[in-house]
Amino acid sequence: MITTINNNHNKLNVPNLRFPEFEGEWEEERLADIADLYKGTGISKNQLSDDGEPCILYGELYTKYKSETIREVISKTNINNTKLVKSKANDVIIPCSGETAEDIATARCVLNGNILLGGDLNIIRLHGYDGAFMSYQLNGRRKYDIAKVAQGVSVVHLYGEHLKGVKTINPCLEEQKKIAKLLSLLDERIATQNKIIDKLQSLIKGLSNKIFESLQGQECRLGDIATITNGNSNVQDAITEYKDDLYPFFDRSEEIKYLPTFLFDKEAIIYPGEGAEFFPRYFNGKFALHQRCYAIFDFNKAINSLHCDFVKFGTLYEMAGEGGTPATSNAAYYDNGNIPFIKIDDLKQKYLTENKDFITELGLQKSSAWLIPTHSILFSNGATIGEISITTYPVCTKQGILGIVPKQNIDVEFLYYLMSSSYFKKAVSRIVTEGTMKTAYLKDINNILCPIPTKERQHEIAKMPSALNSKIDFEQSILKLFGLQKQYLLRQMFI
What we know:
With 495 residues, the protein is an alpha+beta fold. It has three domains: 27-170, Alpha-Beta Complex (Adenine-n6-DNA-methyltransferase TaqI, Chain A, domain 2); 227-297, Adenine-n6-DNA-methyltransferase TaqI, Chain A, domain 2 (Alpha-Beta Complex); 309-452, Adenine-n6-DNA-methyltransferase TaqI, Chain A, domain 2, CATH 3.90.220.20. It has a six-stranded mixed β-sheet. A hairpin with an 8-residue loop joins strand 20 and strand 21 (281-289). The longest helix has 42 residues, at 173-214. The protein is globular, with a radius of gyration of 27 Å. Residues 302-306 have low confidence and may be disordered.
């Protein structure tokens, strides 16, 4: 990327970072002057189907479409569409409602036409402007301008009348397209990075579930609890386009290829035998395999032959209990606090390495919160049940989060994977109490029977998923860098 820094301070409407072939000031223009504004028509979640015409619902802009451009539409509907609104290529869409004014400023460019656009969607149909560029601008420099014109408190609303007066600052169309292309390439790399992380997480989940559903204990190697074998196919024989009579062919690349024959009909973990890129997969069904890739399968056959004691969960820890929230009306409990105060949103990674909120020593004393030591388990047992992390520093938590201090004979990483497994989650789901808030009480969790081998065997079991978690941490650090790069460009390449 070749860019120049703007040193001409006499030109006010010029970004700090710019492609060198472009000159001239950008133009300030209201959305009402450069676009027609429309509203989508109603399509509900229960009207989605496996076939039909592609459609976009407003809530999907928050949950499914993370980049500013929508190339592939996820949802479909087969309802009568004669009265529904369809996109034109280059349309920009923004939700009409959301939880906060900042969240509602979520613009996406629909690159393809004839996509059904659901109700609660603002549609910005531009006159000769690049929709991707406009989405990046509205999500960046104009985000807070949009937030200012949104209406409401508990539920925030944003309609065409509110958007008309929003000011944009735009270069010529060619410069718009070049900026949008650069940012789109970065978004594609971010999407690829997320796929890598998702596949690693799926692999850990599949591996942990297989182990803990059938584990009965005794020390062994991976080769003792599963069949491991390589494939026999070459990349040059692969077919890149899917047809009905073909089977998936896995090699060391991200792209799935195909062959007319299959080698395995198994539920398997697929692992590359060499190469710089580590890209494991989980698959269940008929597939072909590259000669330098391995399939790991038939876990149950070997695992079931092992022996392990089952003990109640309540025997696994020295101390456990929920936290508590100091009265929010008392500033003395929070101002200049230095004790980490953990909420459910903090429990997103295996290891808890950072947090946003703190309380004071007085707040700790005047509440039911307690100081949970390093190398303990945090497990959400209220409202959102099952979020889990390992502490790397002493913390306290709000109510709805259990702190669990393992006994000396319990490996904390083994306990983490046990409590993350479907075996344990199913057991927890059976003891959840319905009420104002769903809760899995500790007294009931204590009675869940858990397969517990020796500590040495616990450590061996935790080794492989732990190695994969380390790989996830590395890939997430790369993802974070890409995110920071995108935010920098959004600040520097727009006015």
